[in-house]
Amino acid sequence: MVQRFNITAIDGDFGDADAVRLYRIDLDKETLTLTQTVPKTDGADFAADFDTALSAVTVPDDHPVFFLIQTDTRNEFILLNYVPDASPVSLKMQAALAQPTVKHLLARFSVVDALHITTREELSYAGYEAHVRSKSANAMSADELRLQELDRAVAAEMPRALPGMAAPDRKFTGSVASLVPMEEDVRPAIDALAAGDARHVILSTNNELVSHVATVATDDTTKLAELVPGSTPSYTITRYLVASVPKYEFVYCCPDGSRVKDRMVTSMMKRALVHYLKNEVHLDVVHAHEISDLDDFADLEADWVHAAEAEPAATEGETADAQLAAAGSSHAANTFKKPRRPGRPGATRVLPHPE
User: Fold this and answer.
1) To 5 degrees, how large is the angle CA 327–CA 333–CA 337?
2) Any alpha helices (H) in 137-283, and if so which ranges?
3) Which domains does the chain possess?
4) What's the Cα-to-Cα distance from 124 to each of 47, 53, 80, 183, 261, rounded to whole Å?
5) Is the pLDDT of residue 141 over 70?
6) Most confident region among 147-151, 164-168, 230-234, 316-320 by mean pLDDT
7) pLDDT at site 315
């Protein structure tokens, strides 16, 4: 239960506030008392008078106190809640709980800012300036800002769909591809895949950049479960032919034991990366899958082998995607899909992803 103070007034005479630079208000148990008043210095502005006013009052070292300092704007004040580190814990709690009450009782004044201060160094105009700078500065790093921009761009352009329903046919209109940061060896690996010189390309993230993990040659029959990292999220791009037409599959693998930050970064980038592959590299990415178990690669690889070997004859006007569907693929195009392993109950989870 939140403790509330039964305080209805601040004892003391505030006098003519226009002539005052600083008020000191003490908290004693459940009583607030105005104990000191410092007038404005003639000809001095707020910055010059800030430290002068504080030097004119007694500043305790072992218990909290409130200072109300007037700026150069009439009836505009800053509330300083000074709680020295040496204060007993019980008094620190009282001061924290009392601050809303103090602001409420000072309703006659316009309190434009409130600071919680614990050291004498902060109790100065330089300390107040540092507080103002910290409020205006962005607390996020450059990398965090870039990821935030990426997340907003993807969210703005992402098609919406109800669970279990494929997303509507909608393309990106923004420049999300330019927001996918990559290491230098990523694009050459993707180009090698597009040229038919590789069977799989495995990517991950490193310091919030898409990084190259491995390129699997066309004649390498090693199972993906043996190549994909088992403890960190990754992206796998696979190439195979359907009726001599190259098709690509995108798999986002996010193992359950992955670090939370890695999961967030890779999840945030996956749709923009698919968009990049389809619209910048011009790969025909027909399916995008999301899995958390390396064993699921076996099911996917079986589907790809079946689709490649079937190579159905196209009827007049039939597209390559229709041929793929006729080959027996059970996955709907243009969705992030977590495959259902044999014997696993429940419906397949479908998530939208961009064109």
Assistant:
1) 105
2) 142-157, 186-194, 260-279
3) 10-136 (3.40.20.10), 161-352 (3.40.20.10)
4) 10, 10, 10, 47, 39
5) no
6) 230-234
7) 47
